[in-house]
Amino acid sequence: MSEPRLDLTASPHLHSPDSTAKIMWTVVFSLLPIVAAAGYFFGISALLVVATATLSTVATERLISGPGTLGNGSATITGVLLGLVLPAGMPLWMVAIGGVVSIGLGKAIFGGLGQNLFNPALIGRAFLQAAFPQAITTWPVAGGSFFALKGDNFALPLMRGSAPDVVTHATPLGLMKFEHTGTGIGSLILGNVGGSVGETSALLILICGGYLAYRNYLNWRIPASIMLTAGLFAAALHLINPLYPGGLFMLFSGGLMLGAVYMATDMVTSPITHKGCWIFGIGIGLLVVLIRVWGGLPEGVMYAILIMNSLVPFINRATQPRVFGVEAPSRLKRKAVAS
Amino acid sequence: MKQVAATEDLLKGLWKENPVLVQTLGMCPTLAITNSVANGIAMGIATFFVLVGSSVLVSSLRKLIPNEVRITAYIVIIATFVTVADMVLQATVPVIHKQLGAFIALIVVNCIILARQEAFAAKNTVWRSFLDAVGMGFGFIIALMLMCSVREVLGSGTFLGHSVFGPNYEPWVIMVLPPGGFLTLGFMLLAIAAWTKRKAPKPLRARPHDVTTRISQKAVV
Prior knowledge:
By secondary structure, chain A is mainly α. Helices cover 56% and strands 0% of the residues of chain A. Chain A starts with 19 loop residues before the first helix and ends with a helix. The mean pLDDT of chain A is 84. Chain B has ten helices and two strands. Mean pLDDT of chain B is 86; it is low at 210-221.
């Protein structure tokens, strides 16, 4: 009978089987159904946009950071997400520039993965929104033949795309904002509406996000608090004045689902404490409704997330948990004043 | 010997101590009015004129100005030249004058100008101050031209109003907006920092035996 072995090793004793690369690639695979749905709704144009954005981010990452960081998949996620938040008919050279900006200005300039303050894909989109405001708000209508282009995807670099001979249509949010017409919740949930490549099918995004939350690869508190806040705030506004969009419409339209599930939960740019995640999500939810209802643009998810990204370091500092056995600083201060 | 120093006064402002790209002074006009080449030329020439005029006047009056009120005196001198430049621009190129707006009057507080008075003109002869001001003024114009060219070509597809890429060009609207100014300036400073870093000699590694070898070599010599 052998004696029980006694291993004496230094901590940590618990190891997580997850590596950065494993998490990142799982997220990439969870995005594939959404990409496939985008292909179903918008045809080959959507796939071209996503593929170009991904190629561009991966190439930029390879150029700036060398071959070592490609394996962790973060550049691939950025590329797929960037492709998903652009309209299907966008000229591909613009998409490629967006990819370069995402990695170059969104990530590499801060020092690479883990150092960036803002979500790289949203930085790329914000740049494109400011640089090419017309191309990025030309929304093709879903449906039609798979191989029919949804716009002048192959416009020559630096040149304007020729006027599209496809039908374009305002997004549900644009309709609500400028013409005060609602869109049925049913088509919003299924995704049969105008919009960016990947922000159409709310149901599919929820399913994929639910899988990631189940694997614990995203903090469910962030999407939950964003949706709760945005839904309740919008519902309250709708009660006060029925001209404002209702809570369900607010939740299922535009980029809120994709933003809440995939953009806001980026591990690098979201708070590290659970309490901080609630604050972060509530802030995004409030800002989304504020921008959508009173802002100049019909959609505000991108700016809401970027604004709250910039507050993450402060949220982290403010929500530090109390170290076991040490009194909270506020109580110490009170004691000092009393004595 | 003195001649060499004088050319150095003239040339240092162009590149080695460029007021915008190396000293990062005068950021306000550099960011605000560089969205078209025409604006940049007008602003560059106006600033050049004010800088040269006030440098010459300050250095010729440098022994008369009491030390305690020198900044006030410099500002009065600079403001005089700015008023002249403002009126001349308004009379000759009213369109550009209107586009530049408050930034003409704001040349008074352009820190390039005040810095040259305080750092150079107040301590040097009129001739040397003149050369210094000409060098710094041209350096400012060079920096503005670099910024303007990038921003106007990308942001409007034109250079001095002439089309560069043809009628189908899709302008990058962001480049003529304020963010474009910050992006362009940031990239230019990044490029210059990278370039100077590459040119600079590698710093010596402070290792103990290196020091001792150097000392022993010295002792031998």
